[in-house]
Amino acid sequence: MLILTCPCCGMTGEETEFHAGGEAHLQRFGPGSTEDQFEEYLFMRENPKGVHFERWRHVNGCGKWFHAARSTTTLEVYGTYAAQTHEPPQTLRDKITAKVPGWTWREFQ
């Protein structure tokens, strides 16, 4: 079971208190985009074995969205951070690198 801490209100709880919202840091395309860009936005998702960044919502708490970094193999949560950031904080990336040398995810490492 995942144990997550909401960075917005500071509450820690089991994953049943939260709702997963899919992959984090997607570049969204709308009107004026090419068909290839829109197809990539709709269908192309990372499905890594290892480090993954996801969106979560604290449904039984403050109701706000945030991002979480976790391992898909061990379910270890490396950390959570505000959804308004465009990339994972450097401190979190350093923490992941210390535990998983050589990891990559999209353009982040």
Automatic annotation (TrEMBL):
<dbReference type="InterPro" id="IPR038561">
    <property type="entry name" value="SoxD_sf"/>
</dbReference>
<keyword id="KW-0560">Oxidoreductase</keyword>
<dbReference type="GO" id="GO:0046653">
    <property type="term" value="P:tetrahydrofolate metabolic process"/>
</dbReference>
<protein>
    <submittedName>
        <fullName>Sarcosine oxidase subunit delta</fullName>
        <ecNumber>1.5.3.1</ecNumber>
    </submittedName>
</protein>
<dbReference type="GO" id="GO:0008115">
    <property type="term" value="F:sarcosine oxidase activity"/>
</dbReference>
<dbReference type="InterPro" id="IPR006279">
    <property type="entry name" value="SoxD"/>
</dbReference>
<dbReference type="Pfam" id="PF04267">
    <property type="entry name" value="SoxD"/>
</dbReference>
